[in-house]
Amino acid sequence: MPIIRHADVKGIPTGGTGPMSTRMMRAARLHGDRRVTVEDRPIPVPAANQVLLQMKAAGICGSDLHSFRLPEPEPNVRDFVPGHEPCGVVVEVGDAVTDWKVGDRVVVYHRCTCKKCHYCRTGFRNWCPNRNMRGRRAYGFNPDGGDEEYMAADADDLMRLPDQLDFVEGAVLACQTGTAYYGLKNIDTRAGDRVLVTGLGPVGLLATLLAKAMGAEVIGADPLAERRRIAGELGADAVFDPAAAPLADQVKSLWPDGATRWAEASGAAAAHAAIPAAAAMNARVAIIGGGAREPSLVLTALMGKQICVIGSNLWPFTAWDEITDFVIRKRVPIRRVVTHELSIDDAPLGFALADRGAAGKVVFRFSH
């Protein structure tokens, strides 16, 4: 079957890249100091090794908020379209692309890596030591990301979206579901474990859903009442406000021996400091959330209970099928973490909602 290189999709012209480049699209831009605009920009022209995606959904991640909050934007914020959780449909393929065709439903692996080192060649692109080559960091930070109606992406960064999953679920899977799943896997979460999830933003909420699907009991902790409410609705066995009393005291009121597994998604120094007291004997703790930079955990305090703390870095490129299979097979309702589905023209509202913690996950949907 011949490869279709261009498609007439919702009015996009066929027959070459020239006419495509004259068409305009809507795209969000971050300007620092919590300022967002939505602009008209030319539809990108894919290179020979790239595809052009018609975006269907794109999520806001916590790392997008770091950029959103910067008082003075870095070039990686100012000069590029944000959004590293893209999900869409291929509408054009470059001349060197053979593995993808027009109409394929795909998610983009957002981290830009060398694709040549031992880690990249064995699927562990999340560990690539040569990131940021030629200034490329990740989609949404250089090159452009998914908060735009059309996006160019390297063909070897694409992952196929299973038919059982919709585009919003694809955006939720693009970064945060895999991050939560791989964190739980790194600490060998099993049925019967007592899992503490600190930080109930989207990653923490997804860790709650996934840990329950793995057969664990789950306690969630977050200072924001709205996030605790959502976690309770998603099946957490208990939710605590860490500001109300020492976290270890609250956890041990339900689990006297402490948590056997811990998904730390807040990045908060106070959560790190609580690990020796709130974790059980021989517990395993995954540090998933970024944030705190000041030391707050005395490593020798881990010795008495032989607590293992591991940093969990995104998820391997080759784990995509495992992650999506688990979600499908266990019927994990990952879409339930999404509390707001907005148009890209509502990008200022979407970032404001995510910034205030007044939402679960915010996703932009594209109607074309």
Topology:
Blueprint: H1 17-22, E1 24-30, E2 36-42, E3 50-59, H2 62-69, H3 75-78, E4 86-93, E5 105-108, H4 118-121, E6 150-154, E7 158-160, H5 167-186, E8 194-198, H6 202-213, E9 217-221, H7 225-233, E10 238-240, H8 247-254, E11 259-264, H9 269-273, H10 275-278, E12 279-287, E13 308-311, H11 320-329, E14 338-342, H12 347-356, E15 361-365
Parallel strand pairs: 8-9, 8-11, 9-10, 11-12, 12-13, 14-15
Antiparallel strand pairs: 1-2, 3-4, 3-6, 3-15, 4-5, 5-7
Helix pairs in contact: 5-6
Class of the largest domain, according to the CATH hierarchy? Answer: Alpha Beta
> N-to-C terminal Cα separation, in Å?
27 Å
Number of helices: 12
Structural class: alpha/beta
Name the beta content range.
Answer: 15-25%
Question: In the residues, how many domains can be counted?
Answer: 2
Fraction of helical residues? 25-40%
Specify Rg, calculated over alpha carbons: 21 Å
Contiguous low-pLDDT stretches (5 residues minimum) are: 1-6, 13-19
What does this structure look like?
The chain is of the alpha/beta class and 368 residues long. It has two domains: 17-161 and 333-365, Quinone Oxidoreductase, Chain A, domain 1; 178-311, Rossmann fold (3-Layer(aba) Sandwich). It contains twelve helices and 15 strands. The protein has helices at residues 17-22, 62-69, 75-78, 118-121, 167-186, 202-213, 225-233, 247-254, 269-273, 275-278, 320-329, 347-356; strands at 24-30, 36-42, 50-59, 86-93, 105-108, 150-154, 158-160, 194-198, 217-221, 238-240, 259-264, 279-287, 308-311, 338-342, 361-365. The strands form three sheets. Strands 3, 4, 5, 6, 7, 14 and 15 form a seven-stranded mixed sheet that branches. Strand 14, helix 12 (347-356) and strand 15 (361-365) form a beta-alpha-beta unit. Helix 5 (167-186) packs across helix 6. It starts with 16 loop residues before the first helix and ends with a strand. Residues 1-6 and 13-19 have low confidence and may be disordered.
